[in-house]
């Protein structure tokens, strides 16, 4: 495939940094660009997904909304890795807590993602349902956590294809069998693409709701109040 791709309307790959921060919500991408980056340019993509390239200090970084779910992040991350020469993608998203020790706004660093999804198998990888994040990139994030004084909790995450289940208690079996501390919907596909492309991927998450206490944040808070993981990710670039 040539560039522009079917989903990213940009002909010059040099306008995208080697490291991309990838929130699901395109409005969160805009918030990060407006709040933390200088000399920002906008990158257009189809279906109202927007990216922004700018500088955090002297470091060039791109922030690019992935959309919701594995098919969406799968398309954008694959094209960024393989056609726009991106080396590293750090997903920065929200998650629901399965673990009673996790509280709203806790920042989690995904060590590995479990999923029932056939994404990796369909992509052409071996039929694995657990894929690890890149260790070197996770170590950079851990160093950034120490530098910023913002703690992170390493976890196994459940990447689900389904937000609403007919069995409302199915998550308990997944938590117990795979030791999954939280659930989200994108990191498994991102890790699969990184593995297939021989690139690096990591995932930072903020707890937005709890399956235990049923507490939850608002849409506005998910867009603008998850600043701790944003700062860790930016300092790891």
Descriptive keywords:
single chain; 237 residues; alpha/beta; Rossmann fold; 5-stranded mixed barrel; 10 strands
Q: What does the model show?
A:
The chain is built from eight helices and ten strands. The protein is α/β, with parallel strands linked by helices and 237 residues long. It has one domain: Rossmann fold (3-Layer(aba) Sandwich), CATH 3.40.50.1580. The chain has a five-stranded mixed β-barrel with strand order 5-9-8-6-10, surrounded by five helices. It is globular. The chain starts with 18 loop residues before the first strand and ends with a helix.
Secondary structural class: alpha/beta
CATH architecture field: 3-Layer(aba) Sandwich
Helix content: 25-40%
Number of helices: 8
Strands side by side in the biggest sheet: 5-9-8-6-10
Radius of gyration: 17 Å
User: On the 0-100 scale, what is the average pLDDT?
Assistant: 94
- Give the low-pLDDT segments: none
Relevant CATH superfamily: Nucleoside phosphorylase domain
Largest sheet: 5 strands, mixed, barrel
Distance between the termini: 28 Å
Question: What string gives the helices and strands in order?
Answer: EHEEEHEEHEHEHEHEHH
CATH class: Alpha Beta
CATH-derived topology: Rossmann fold
Shape: globular
Number of domains: 1
Which band does the percent of strand residues land in?
25-35%
Number of β-strand runs:
10
């Amino acid at each position: 495939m040539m560039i522009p791709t079917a989903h990213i309307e940009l002909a010059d790959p040099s306008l995208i940094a080697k490291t991309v921060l990838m929130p699901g919500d395109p409005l969160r991408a805009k918030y990060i660009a407006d709040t933390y980056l200088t000399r920002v340019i906008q990158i257009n993509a189809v279906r109202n997904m927007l990216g922004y390239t700018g500088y955090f200090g002297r470091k060039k970084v791109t922030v690019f909304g992935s959309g919701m779910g594995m098919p969406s992040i799968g398309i954008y991350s694959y094209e960024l890795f393989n056609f726009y020469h991106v080396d590293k993608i750090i997903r920065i998203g929200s998650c629901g807590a399965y673990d009673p020790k996790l509280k709203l706004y806790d920042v989690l660093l995904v060590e590995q993602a479990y999923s029932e999804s056939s994404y990796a198998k369909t992509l052409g990888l071996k039929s694995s349902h657990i894929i690890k994040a890149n260790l070197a990139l996770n170590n950079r994030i851990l160093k950034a956590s120490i530098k910023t004084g913002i703690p992170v909790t390493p976890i196994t995450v459940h990447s689900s294809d389904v937000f609403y289940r007919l069995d409302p208690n199915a998550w308990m079996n997944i938590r117990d069998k795979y030791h999954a501390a939280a659930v989200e919907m994108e990191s498994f596909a991102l890790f699969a693409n990184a593995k297939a492309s021989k690139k690096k991927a990591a995932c930072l998450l903020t707890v937005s709701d709890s399956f235990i206490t049923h507490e939850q944040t608002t849409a506005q808070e998910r867009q603008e109040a998850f600043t701790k993981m944003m700062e860790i990710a930016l300092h790891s670039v």
